[in-house]
Amino acid sequence: MRERYLGRKKGAVSQLLARLKEFAPADKPRAGQAVNGLKAFIEASLAAALERRAGDAGGSASAWRDHSLPPSELPVGRLHLIADIQRRIEDIFLQLGYEIAVGPEIELEDYNFTKLNIPEHHPARDEQDTFFLEGHDDRVLRTHTSPMQVRYMLEHKPPLKIISPGKAFRKDDPDATHSPCFHQVEGLLVERGIRFSHLKGTLEAFCRSFFGPDIVLRFRPGYFPFTEPSAEVDISCFMCRSGQGAIQAGDCRVCKGSGWLEILGSGMVHPRVLGNCGIDPEVYSGFAFGLGIERVAMIKYGVPDLRLLYENDLRLLGQFG
Ligand code: PHE
User: Fold this and answer.
1) Protein residue closest via CA to atom 6 of ligand 1
2) What residues does each domain of the chain span?
């Protein structure tokens, strides 16, 4: 309507104004007054109509309503990206027959370190790296979800097949890839005759289900005191498909051109850890793995800075879940 009457060139009122010069000088003021009066009337009417509509949206009872208009959109809540990814990971392992076991965030230093074969003077035990609890010098905020391996092995007899999601804490200054509180998913399987190939097959099944069916895994030798042998696991970049896809690996913003993405730590449960937890390493063997949820979120959705996940800006969080 505004365009039709007040549009700068084609609007009816504008065209009338342009024609004022056709009036004799004596009639001009009256004609001008009439057209300007019309313009003011239309402007006021349009403004009033807009106000009525705004009143409608606000639900004023007296306001005129157009019941043919679509309803205004209601805000709908959704899962935070971290919770969403955690549940998707849980779903995949539930399908593989795992149980979910949740452990405490305040953990015995014994479970967090000692029983996991982390030596007395290991730097991870330092006050620089770990949150200790004042007045409870045997307790820490767990620095990983691995102590849940210990808890579960102490309380259950094999076969054991669990994942354990939850928060972990380290004294890191927040930056693009570090947060003093973060999330992990631990995995543990203990049974007779478990071999490294079982670990490989399990992680491959998980990664293909989570990231895509043509994902390839790369196992690199790694070191964790509680697994032997240990492996860091990379997946082929799902974005550039390690340079096989449309994007040249060198241009890929996800893998930064390497073609691979490091996603988890894993290994065969160290015989000493099995022994510490009352399981005979001569009879049983097992594998374990630990994966960072924030890291997976950043990789899968291209989140450039981990802190964004904790600022709770709905413009960001509303895009996921
Ligand atoms: N707990 C290790 C970490 O936080 C990950 C891990 C879990 C490695 C289980 C091996 C086996 O880095």
Assistant:
1) 290
2) 2-63, 82-317
State residue 204 phi and psi, 5-degree precision: -65, -45
| 21-28 contacts, C-beta under 8 A, 24 or more apart | none
Q: What pLDDT is recorded for position 120?
A: 86
Question: Which residues have CB under 6 Å of ligand 1?
Answer: 144, 146, 186, 224, 227, 265-267, 288-290
- Give the single-character DSSP code of 130: S
In the predicted model, what is the mean pLDDT of residues 267-276? Answer: 98
Mean pLDDT value across the chain: 90
Q: Kindly report the protein residue whose alpha carbon is nearest to atom 12 of ligand 1.
A: 265
- CATH level 3 topology of 82-317: BirA Bifunctional Protein; domain 2 (3.30.930)
Q: Which of 145, 224, 273, 295 to mutate to test the pocket of ligand 1 (most atoms within 8 A of CB)?
A: 224
Q: Is the dihedral of CA 256, 259, 263, 265 positive or negative?
A: negative
Q: Could you tell me the two tokens for 194?
A: 């478990």
pTM of the model: 0.76
